[in-house]
Amino acid sequence: MSAAACIFCRIIRGEIPSFKLLETEKIFAFLDIQPLSKGHCLVIPKTHGERLHDVPDDELAELLPAAKKLALATGAVDYNILQNNGSIAHQVVGHVHVHMIPKPNEKEGLTVGWPAKETDMDALKALHENIKAKM
Ligand code: 5GP
Ligand code: ZN
């Protein structure tokens, strides 16, 4: 999707209203319109990029400090920081965003499925070598 049509780019430009919380040269933060819990908010880089690896490092570097500020300002004690990439990974809006989702109790906030697999140590060792060789 182009930056012209992107809903989050339009929020940054002020073409769509939002409950803005933070803005710098590089990032913008606002309340999520369909929160999982009270205080659920989003931090986005100003550069339009669909996935994490599409966004410049200097903008990515501001996302987590902003999420930390928001967690403190909302008074969240327990919370999840979430960033989805790709529709199968639950990304709905195609502009990188970091969720800060307070977890006030078992029912509200993020619920996560965690289908952990048995470990094959040989396969894990081979994977380790493979990934290291590509960085
Ligand atoms: P995703 O599933 O892509 O990680 O999450 C997208 C998030 O953006 C959802 O939590 C959704 O509620 C939020 N969202 C979608 N459209 C708008 C909007 O127009 N304004 C605001 N404030 N949040 C939005
Ligand atoms: Zn965008």
Summarize the structure.
The protein is an alpha+beta fold and 135 residues long. It has one domain (7-133): 2-Layer Sandwich (HIT family, subunit A), CATH 3.30.428.10.
Question: From N to C, what is the helix and strand string?
Answer: HEEEHEEH
Query: Which structural class should the secondary elements be placed in?
Result: alpha+beta
Name of the CATH architecture:
2-Layer Sandwich
| Quaternary structure of the protein | single chain
Going by CATH, the homologous superfamily would be HIT-like
So what's the overall shape?
globular
Bound molecules: guanosine-5'-monophosphate, zinc ion
Q: What's the story with the biggest beta sheet?
A: 5 strands, antiparallel
User: What's the end-to-end separation, in Å?
Assistant: 29 Å
CATH topology: HIT family, subunit A
Query: Which value, in Å, is the CA radius of gyration?
Result: 17 Å
Mean pLDDT over the residues: 97
- CATH class identity: Alpha Beta
Strand order of the largest sheet: 1-2-3-5-4
What is the count of DSSP helices, taking H or I runs of 4+ residues? 3
Protein name: Adenosine 5'-monophosphoramidase HNT1
GO molecular function: hydrolase activity; nucleotide binding
Catalytic activity: adenosine 5'-phosphoramidate + H2O = NH4(+) + AMP
Active site: 97 (tele-amp-histidine intermediate)
